[in-house]
Design a protein that fits this description.
83 residues, mainly alpha, 5 helices, elongated
Length: 83
Amino acid sequence: MQGVHSLRALERLARLDVGCMWVCGGIAPDHANIGRFITLHEASLTHDFFESAKAAREALAQAPADPNAQQAEREARECSMMR
């Protein structure tokens, strides 16, 4: 994640990066737990997995901050098309 490979650096990232906090569910796992997770789920942690996670993160970054903003934009477009 973000080019970080050491377990202690991943531990630090889990405490400091908002995206990592979201992925971790709001908990801050220590380096030993991160290592155990990687060992247990090694087969699932493929290049495709990380590419799809990266795409999801980019999509979230482009989403409006207000969840109602997207609906309001859609309604405004529909109104303008009706005129």
